[in-house]
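User:
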Amino acid sequence: MLVVLGVAALVGVGAWAAVVALQPGNEPGGATASPTPSATTRAPGATTTPRTTTTPSAATPSPDATDPAAPDDGTTPTAAPSAPPTGAPDQRQETAVTIVTADTAPSGDLEVGAFVAAIDDGGTCTLTATSGARTLSATTSAVPDATTTSCGALSLAAADLAPGTWRLAVAYESATLRGTSAPVQVTVR
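Assistant: Predicted structure:
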């Protein structure tokens, strides 16, 4: 029994020494580690007092983790990310847009049909037609259906279309998605 207790005591001391050796500031050469978060399990009914432990470096002071005005230098955890700076990259996901029809109606108007390869609500489809230096556009609200989002019929008036080759593209934009179709060429006579 005495041998078992002695072994248990040695294992306990060894574990304690390992924990102490891994504490910030106990690295070989006196280097100071950045604080790291850890999880603790407490016994039922026990109470705890929150505690933050940091080891500031002598060369550069560390900001207080609870000070919201303190700059984030990458060493202290933050509760929430800061707002993106103005001019931040567009965070919307790219989606495929496909032109399925580009025909002349009996009235002579050019009608283009397209769809978005995602179910999305609240977006708009914009048809852009370019011939030489001339550009025409038409915009409509997109409508989600069972498997895609329909752009419906986008129409350009015959009176606005000069004879020649026109390059067509449909762009889709919503709060969460964006995309542009591959260009399609049509000839207006």
